[in-house]
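Hey L., structure's done. Input below.
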Amino acid sequence: MKVAPRIIKACVKNDRMAQQELYKLVFRPLMGICMRYKHNQEDGVAILNDAFLKILTNLKDLNKDVPFEAWIKRITINCCINDYRKHKNKPKLVPIESESFLDFLLPIDDDEIDEEGVGISIQNLRILLSELPNSSQEVFQLYILEGYTHSEIGGILNISEGTSKWHLNNARKILRTKLKERFNITRKVAL
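Output:
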C-alpha cells in the first residue's frame, strides 16, 4: 500500500474526497488485521471504522519520521486489542489466512497434506488454531502475526513476560502435537 503525501495533506484539511480515497487504499490491509480478531466481517468493519476515525483524528500529529503504513497498522491493532478487552465473553480470535503466516508455520502446497507430509491446507490450519486455548491463541497471534515482543504482549494483556513466553510455547506445542496426530507427520515439525 502506497499513500501519496498529497492525500494525507488533504485529509488533514478535512477534504472528504481525500478521506474516501484514503479509506479505499487502506481498507484491505487494515481489514485483514481486524479479521484476525473477529469472527465476522461486520464486527471487523466496525473495528476498522473506529481505527480509521482515530487515524483521521490524529493524522495532523503524525511524525514524518514514522512510516505511515506502520503507524496506521499500530492504531488498528490497538483498536482490535481494546475491543477484545472490552467484551466480557472474550471471543476466540480468528486465525489469519495470509500466505506469509502460513509459510511461517509450514509450507503449503495444495488442499491436503503434500506427499512429503509437511504441507497443510488453510482450512485445516484454521481449525487447529481455533482449538488453542484463548490466551495461548492470543499471544501466538500477537507474537507471530503482529510482531510484538513478549514484553509488549505482557503490557497489552497485563501478564508477565514469562507468561507470554509460556503461552507461545504452549501454542506451538499443541499445534505440533495436533499436526502429528491428524496428519501422521513422523518427522519433527518446526513451528
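The chain is about 65% helix and 0% strand. The mean pLDDT is 77.

-- N.
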